[in-house]
Write a structure and sequence with these properties.
12 strands, five-stranded parallel β-sheet, about 10% strand, 14 helices, about 350 residues, five-stranded mixed β-sheet, alpha/beta
């Protein structure tokens, strides 16, 4: 039996012509010079120069003030994860999310009435840990076509690098304001993502509170397991139902580091372009196997556990031999939002139960 798993390659984003704003305005080009009549011949040269400088400064200052007054107010100006400038004239009132991570962040920091739509994933308890909160937002999109999104009349659309580039460009061609973000490869990048979404939606205080809560959660994990030397940290190999999960230098790799674990898939070289075989995993002899909990085809965690136990290929692997076959909800493991921090916590708790003895 040889299975391989290829992570989904990240798509690139290009700059959309319809999305670049030309901020020049003819209203700023007002005649600013004021006629000044003086008898300059009676002034000494030094005083004459000083007077001319003062007049010039006053004229330029007047021009600048008139230009600033002419430029429309801006609620937000920044650059998204694809390098495209995003400008909002006012606080958005109808926000659409086309990614699970932005679904969860919005549900945590924004009131339901500000959210025009989420993805259908927000209703899937196998992928989202926020299904109850998501019930307050009635529209969930399975159809993410430009026409369907446009019909919602959004004033801001969040997408991720999991959304096809062509769809993002089509939304911009329709005149919609789109903020496209890249999936973070580090936990720290999640905090940056939350902060930016807070700025874009005018929910800075709620975003700051969420970040503070999750930083405290990470600090708790660090306090409990951070003292374990690198060489003594168990090797963990995570599985999806399709094969090995957790590419080198990806987000799960960083989750493992924060949980004081070593990511076995990264050790044997799993990358976007390089798959690994089960024989490589067996040769690594991991201490822990992390089992999948979500499947689009309805596969079960316990069936997967029994396959590992009964497969002769894994019979002598330490994780199977010592029954270190753990499951952490994939709602946390697959999260690229705040719930990724919960994955760190649950990983550490599963592998080091003695250090979480006080946790009920």
């Amino acid at each position: 039996m040889v299975q391989i798993f290829r992570p989904v390659e990240e798509t690139n984003r290009t700059h959309s012509k319809s999305y670049v704003e030309d901020l020049s305005t003819k209203r700023g080009r007002k005649r600013c010079a004021k006629a000044v009549v003086l008898n300059l011949s009676v002034l000494p040269k030094l005083q004459l120069c000083a007077l001319l400088l003062l007049l010039a400064a006053g004229i330029l200052s007047g021009c600048k003030e008139e230009q600033n007054a002419a430029e429309p107010s801006v609620f937000y100006r920044g650059t998204d994860g694809m390098g495209v400038e995003v400008v909002l004239r006012e606080k958005p009132q109808r926000v659409v999310s086309l990614g699970l991570a932005t679904d969860e962040i919005l549900l945590a920091i924004a009131p339901p009435e500000q959210i025009a739509a989420l993805t259908a994933y927000a209703d899937d308890p196998g992928l989202s840990s926020m299904t109850e909160v998501a019930k307050a937002v009635p529209v969930k999109l399975k159809d993410r076509s430009p026409e369907r999104v446009l019909a919602l009349h959004p004033d801001l659309v969040f997408t991720t690098d999991g959304v096809p580039k062509e769809l993002v460009e089509s939304l911009r061609d329709l005149g919609l304001t789109v903020y496209a973000s890249r999936t973070p490869k580090r936990i720290e990048g999640i905090f940056t993502r939350i902060e930016e979404i807070g700025r874009l939606t005018g929910q800075e205080e709620n975003a700051a509170a969420l970040i503070a809560e999750k930083r405290a959660r990470l600090a708790d994990v660090e306090r409990r397991v951070g003292d374990i030397p690198e060489a003594e940290r168990p090797i963990i190999v995570a599985f999806a139902f399709s094969g090995v999960f957790g590419q080198k230098d990806g987000l799960f790799d960083d989750m493992c580091r924060h949980a004081s674990l070593r990511n076995g898939a990264a050790i044997v070289g799993l990358t976007v372009d390089t798959p690994v075989s089960m024989e490589q995993i067996v040769a690594l002899d991991p201490d822990v196997f992390l089992l999948p909990t979500w499947s689009a085809e309805g596969e079960k965690t316990e069936d997967f556990r029994q396959k590992l136990r009964n497969d002769p290929l894994f019979m002598h692997v330490k994780a199977v031999r010592e029954n270190h076959l753990y499951a952490v909800p994939d709602t946390y493991r697959y999260s690229a939002g705040q719930n990724a921090i919960e994955c760190v916590y649950e990983l550490a708790r599963a592998v080091y139960p003695e250090r979480f003895a006080d946790v009920k």
